[in-house]
Amino acid sequence: MKKIKWVLLLFAFAAVFSIMLIGVSIAEKSALGIIGSILLVCAVMGSGFTLKRKMREQGLLD
After folding, report:
1. Roughly what angle, to the nearest 10 degrees, separates helices 6-27 and 31-57?
2. Taking the mean position of all CA atoms in its chain, how far away is CA 31?
3. Each residue's pLDDT tens digit in the chain (62 positions)?
4. InterPro entries annotated for this entry (predicted)?
């Protein structure tokens, strides 16, 4: 059984939460909230993919 990479799981939950914020911002009709949430999704997912690449290069991923 493979070990859970908790940091990557945290990034995944943060990305899902950010996507949910887009829906909340749409419901609230907040253009600033929508734009902020989209930027947050891009930042979180970009950071997660960058971390995963670094971990793969260091041999920390199976």
Report:
1. 170
2. 21
3. 578 899 999 999 999 999 999 999 999 999 999 999 999 999 999 999 999 999 999 988 87
4. DUF5325
Instruction: Supply angle C-alpha 48, 5, 22, rounded to 5.
Output: 40
d(CA 44, CA 50): 10
Q: What angle do CA 52, 41, 13 make, to 5 degrees?
A: 65
Alpha-carbon distance 34 to 27, whole Å? Answer: 10
Question: Phi, psi at residue 4, to the nearest 5°?
Answer: -80, 130
C-alpha to C-alpha distance for 58 and 6, rounded to whole angstroms:
17
